[in-house]
Amino acid sequence: MVPKYPSMNSASPAGSPRLAYLDWLRGLAAVIMIQGHAFHSFTKPELRTSGPYVLSQFVGGMPPAIFLFLVGVTLAFLMDNRERKGLPPLARWRASLKRAGYLFALAFLFRLQLWLFAWPTSPWTDLLKVDILNAMGLAVAVLSPLALWSTADRARLGAAAGLAIALCSPLVSRLNWSGVPPLVKAYLAPDYYYFAFFPWASFVAFGLSAGSILKLVRLEQIERLMQWSAVFGFALILGGQYFANIPYSIYPGSDFWLDSPLLILIKLGVILLMLAFAYVWMSYVVRDRWSWVRQFGLTSLLVYWVHIELMYGRWFWFWKENLTIGQTAVVAVAFILLMLALSVVRTQWRYWRVMGAWLSWRVLAPRRAFGD
Q1: What is the rounded distance in angstroms from the CA atom of residue 153 to the CA atom of residue 142?
Q2: Distance in angstroms (rounded) separating the CA atoms of residues 292 and 295
């Protein structure tokens, strides 16, 4: 059995508890993430310069940006809902800080579980690794004061904050971090191995702006908004590529793939295009039917947590860096199906409990009546 979703694909942002196109976009990011991690974990080292592997990792660079962007969207929804309920500014700020604390708690529990399952071979420093959940928590904490403003102001301030973080990233990257504790540097400075505040928090800020705009528009304006999202997305991609190819820069040095503001804007453009496509797909193609991609979006945290443990833990050690491209592709598909089954079980858990209780009553009650 697959779940039947209520009709929320074109629902008003102000009145819908979930927006199907946002779930679908989150689910697509989860699927891309799984294949990227499968290739990263299982492909033989000598095959990592091949076209399919490079493509898997190139595409796999989008999910973190999408997840962070959608965290910003949900943060905007939280702030707007508290504002609509009449909460004073400081209470809205505290609610946002609680969301940041929740993300930090998840980040620590995630690292603790991975460390315990890898014990005794895992060093204790693994508990302090700055992963995407840590980046989410820090970004939400830093942006939480925007709850003091109105939704309309947050739409502008969020975009300004995202642009400021992106523009400052190359400068932060070139600061002298030699006397700074490594953990502080991991949280702040751009790095290939960590999800630092610079530049990743810019996606949360841009998402906060986009979520605020979604809360401001009326139902009949959503489609036009998505059209503008696609147009603006194309403009960011084309503009970012054009300026990236100019042999001059305002920065003394910038690594395009690490801290370039232009890369951030190009990825933002891709996200806005994907957002518009997700809206059209869910509103006019899928509509009220079950979507396996959206299913991933409903349980993205669970899928992220479990697949990381399975792919990078001890479970499939015999496949680690030992498969061909074709074998890895098969494994990636198998993991996607496995995580889809886990997602369905998670969302349908209450249904199966009710069915189990009903069957027990139907089977056992007559037996008890006859003294069996």
Answers
A1: 17
A2: 5
Q: Which residue has the tokens 């006019």?
A: 284
Determine the pLDDT at residue 2.
Answer: 45
Q: How far apart are CA 183 and CA 199, in angstroms?
A: 17
- Could you tell me if 107 and 139 are in contact, meaning their C-beta atoms sit under 8 angstroms apart? no
CA–CA dist 262, 170 (Å, integer) = 11
Q: Which residues pair with 43 in a beta bridge?
A: 323
| Number of neighbours of residue 221 by Cβ within 10 angstroms | 11
- Those residues whose C-beta lies under 8 Å from the C-beta of residue 209, and which sit 6 or more positions away, are 72, 76, 154, 155, 156, 157, 158, 159, 162
- What residue type is assigned to position 159 of the chain? A
pLDDT one-digit tens code per residue, 87-107: 999 999 999 999 999 999 999
The pTM of the full predicted model, rounded to 2 decimals, is 0.90
Report the C-alpha gap between 4 and 365 in whole angstroms: 31
Under 8 Å CB-to-CB from 200, ≥6 apart: which residues?
64, 65, 68, 132, 135, 139
Identify the residue whose tokens are 């069915």: 355
Neighbours of 311 (CB within 10 A): 20
Q: Cβ contacts of residue 322 below 8 Å, gap of 6+? A: 42, 44
**Domain ranges within the chain, ordered by starting residue:** 20-369
Question: How far is 13 from 185, CA to CA, in rounded Å?
Answer: 38
User: What residues have CB less than 8 Å from 295, skipping those under 6 apart?
Assistant: 2, 3, 27, 340, 343, 344, 347
